[in-house]
Amino acid sequence: LSLKFGDVGNLKGLVIRFLLTTSYYQLSVQNWFSLHKLQLLYNHSIQATFNATRIYAPASYSYHCEHVSSLQRYDALLIPSSANDLSKLWEVTFTDFQIQGFNIQEGHFAYAKDCATFFSPAILMGLVMSLILLLVLAYALHMLIHLKSLDRQYECKASSAYFAQMKDNDMGDEKEPLRSSGNESDELRNQQFYKIYI
User: Which residues, in sequence order, are bridge partners of residue 52?
Assistant: First the structure.
């Protein structure tokens, strides 16, 4: 497959050539095509060659990718074939790249196999947050299941503390100071307390 651009600046007869191969895979029981090489031709000779990696799709599909590039920031699907040729001097990037070499019908692309991986950073972050929330929910349910009713655990008992008898004139107040030997303290009569068993 060749794209002919004609003369572009100092480049005479610029052509971008895509070398596609097809193979039959028994596991998927169908033919697959792959982009094997990309060649840049100008001045009537091959000037740069890039090996393509991970650009493949079933033969009845097209292949689509947001960026197909020789740059590392775009995952470098195009790798210079040799350090000796001029490939190192070229930076090739295709945006919104789509290719189909076989089974083209009515001049339209078939359904596209996309290069985007299922586990993008956003999806991974969502999965991690879902896992954290699931663990918090499981811990809360565990605590609710093991929560015991407190109504039956209260036990009301009278105080077993001993209080000395008070004089009759001191009985009028529920709470009153005692002034014996210069110390001042409060005493609650009919004191009760509760015990909680857990």
Answer: 78
CB atoms within 10 A of CB 189: 11
- The DSSP 8-state label assigned to residue 10 in this structure reads T
Structure-block tokens of residue 61: 């599909």
- To which residue do tokens 């100008």 refer? 42
d(CA 180, CA 184): 7
CA torsion through residues 120, 22, 15, 6, sign: negative
- State the Cα–Cα distance between residues 115 and 110, nearest whole angstrom: 15
- The answer to whether residues 41 and 62 touch, using CB atoms and an 8 Å cutoff, is no
Residue with tokens 């068993």: 197
**Beta pairing, strands 112-114 & 62-69:** parallel
Q: What is the pLDDT of residues 59-118, one digit of tens each?
A: 889 999 988 998 888 888 898 887 777 788 888 999 999 998 888 888 888 888 888 766
Containing 164, the helix (H) or strand (E) segment is: none
Q: What's this model's pTM, rounded to 2 decimal places?
A: 0.56
Euclidean distance between CA atoms 157 and 136, whole angstroms: 40
Q: Could you give the count of Cα atoms lying within 13 Å of 158 in the half-sphere of its Cβ?
A: 5
3-state class (DSSP) for residue 53: coil
